[in-house]
């Protein structure tokens, strides 16, 4: 499968290893070649200094002990470039013939004295000097008709009569090139084999590592085809990235299953809650059509109001579930409390406003007003004689408390009452107009505003919101 992860991983690993091996092999060859050339240069220098030492000690040029030409070709020249001596079988160096000379033609022989030599010169040659410096270069030499490449070392020397000569000795480069060629050939043979091994191992390892991924994919495909969200993907026993992916996938499936189940219950409960006021309203209207004198107008209005509130709550919950964020703005909680309580003068239990500080919070005025209204409605249904609202500050939080003197919420039910369509059997009834959405809606709005809503001390509902600014 050319487009698979296994193929891409194998190809990528092979390319990386190939580049690394090529770079490493090139470096090894360069280092090896440099070392072998250095060794050849050192051998040539040793040979040149041995001959130069003979010249410095006064050995005549025709009596120099020169190495074999096929091992270290040696040529001794004067300052004018004329050949003073050359090794046996050495015919040419760098294409210049040496003629197999043992002494420089046209110059005074090593064993002769010049015409103007003084008495001190007649006593024999004096010790000379050998230069410390050495000059190395690559060149060719013709030894007994065979031309080959050599590493030459040139060393200067001065004989006892003051004649300066240059000794140039060579060391064959053929062994160095043979060694480098052998290593290069071995690399050229081993590199493809190693790349094949790398590609195969990478393919097998990747295949084994991705096998759980294929299991996850196939199970997800089966879940999608069956729409059965209760199924889960297999989780590998290893503690690696794929195992974490499987666990996260199962957590996502669990959350999705719970969300779908909530939606299903929501639709069923909403249909049930809507059915009652609609059926009641239809019955009253049908009775009114047949018998106008029996029409219960207040009841029809109450059912219509209940239906309107329920529809508004369902619409707001749907918007919140869709991720709607509260509109930007600032809301004065104390002013909001005064406005809401002023509209509830006809409530069954009078609402008393306690300590109220002018605290501003960021958010939607209409949604926070809905929260306050739902809390007051809940308090009205359970209060015996009083309902109190207060706004206080607690550090960086604005706290709105709604308290009634009713029986309160049992501690075991303080979280359950915030679930949708939940009514406590001993404290709530459908006849009271509660559909079980008010507190759930209030908490969702509080969370969307960065706050929280909880029950404190049984009958105290506490809304906490961050103070604006």
Largest sheet: 8 strands, antiparallel
Portion of residues in beta strands equals: 15-25%
Number of strands: 15
What structural class is derived from the secondary structure elements?
A: alpha+beta
Q: What is the overall pLDDT average?
A: 81
Alpha carbon gyration radius: 53 Å
Number of domains: 3
The helix/strand series, from N terminus to C terminus, equals HEEEEHEEEEHHHEHEEHEEHEE
Spatial shape: rod-shaped
Spans of at least 5 consecutive residues whose pLDDT stays below 50 are: 102-126, 426-433
Number of helices: 8
Terminal Cα span: 59 Å
Multimerization status = single chain
Helix content: 40-55%
In short:
With 469 residues, this protein is of the alpha+beta class. Helices cover 48% and strands 19% of the residues. The chain has three domains: 1-110 and 123-226, no CATH class; 241-321, Signal transduction histidine kinase, dimerisation/phosphotransfer (DHp) domain (Helix Hairpins), CATH 1.10.287; 330-466, Heat Shock Protein 90, CATH 3.30.565.10.
Structural account:
The chain has 469 residues and is of the alpha+beta class. It has three domains: 1-110 and 123-226, no CATH class; 241-321, Signal transduction histidine kinase, dimerisation/phosphotransfer (DHp) domain (Helix Hairpins, Orthogonal Bundle), CATH 1.10.287; 330-466, Heat Shock Protein 90 (2-Layer Sandwich), CATH 3.30.565.10. It is built from eight helices and 15 strands. It has helices at 5-56, 119-122, 174-226, 241-290, 297-321, 333-342, 365-382, 438-448; strands at residues 74-78, 83-86, 90-93, 96-97, 129-130, 135-143, 146-158, 164-172, 330-332, 351-356, 360-362, 387-394, 397-404, 452-456, 460-466. The strands form three sheets. Strands 1, 2, 3, 4, 5, 6, 7 and 8 form an eight-stranded antiparallel sheet that branches. Strand 6 and strand 7 form a beta hairpin. Helix 1 runs antiparallel to helix 3 (174-226), helix 5 (297-321) packs parallel to helix 8 and helix 7 packs antiparallel against helix 8 (438-448). Residues 102-126 and 426-433 have low confidence and may be disordered.
